[in-house]
Write a structure and sequence with these properties.
Keywords: Transferase. The structure is a single chain. By secondary structure, the chain is of the alpha+beta class. It has one domain: Aminopeptidase (3-Layer(aba) Sandwich), CATH 3.40.630. The protein is 31% helix and 26% strand. The protein contains six helices and nine strands. The protein has a nine-stranded mixed beta sheet with strand order 1-2-3-4-5-6-9-7-8, sandwiched between helices. The chain is globular. The protein starts with a strand and ends in an 11-residue tail after the last helix.
Length: 202
């Protein structure tokens, strides 16, 4: 299903988006906190990213949505809701990636807000979480603007704590991940104060 926001349209990803996805992941600045700037190979997007998103949509109603300009259909990025592997909790992982040319306009927040509303209003979800490397402050600010709070700090596969004021152990901020979450009960309380996604775009 398509989801319209104040300034954009979210539509399910398909094979016709492969060129745009490859171009997005070829920008070193976009990929800085994802892969250290290394592009995602086209074969990975063709053989894994898009098929997996389509499978998620068929099975769970989740997956990846492409963010488009509603007037021109220009590709702006994507946002996704993913069912975590090996998790039996009613939870979804939120992710987003935006073209560098439209950074700073609040589009990531707007798209993420729309998917969180979809998750809590239409899917059997009790928790939405998102992760990024600790040094990715723009992404962390998106999570905080959405009302998400820090719920974990991860070094590799190990959770080392929450709410640490400084870098854990001897690591720099690009060497460990932070996880933020929002529960359905928290979302319901906050959404009463948010009349639309446009409230979050400043």
């Amino acid at each position: 299903m398509n989801i319209d926001t104040a300034r954009a349209r979210l539509r399910p990803v398909s094979a016709m988006d492969i060129d745009d996805l490859v171009h997005l992941d070829s920008d070193p600045e976009v990929m800085r906190f994802v892969s250290g700037g290394t592009p995602t190979p086209r074969t990975v997007i063709e053989d894994w990213v898009v098929p997996r998103a389509e499978s998620e949509r068929r099975m769970y109603g989740t997956g990846t949505w492409v963010l488009c300009d509603p007037a021109t259909e220009a590709f702006l990025g994507w946002a996704s809701l993913r069912t975590p592997r090996h998790s039996r909790r009613p939870e979804l992982e939120l992710s987003y990636r935006i073209r560098r040319t439209v950074w700073g306009r609040g589009l990531a927040t707007e798209a993420a807000f729309a998917l969180m509303a979809f998750a809590f209003d239409h899917l059997d979800t009790e928790r939405v979480f998102a992760s990024t490397v600790a040094g990715n402050m723009p992404s962390r600010r998106v999570m905080e603007k959405l009302g998400m709070t820090l719920s974990g700090i991860h070094v590799g596969d190990e959770t080392v704590g929450t709410g640490m004021p400084t870098h854990p152990l001897h690591l720099g901020p690009d060497r460990y991940e932070v996880e933020y979450q929002i529960l359905k009960t928290e979302w319901q309380r906050r959404s009463l104060r948010w009349s639309s996604a446009s409230d979050l775009t400043a």
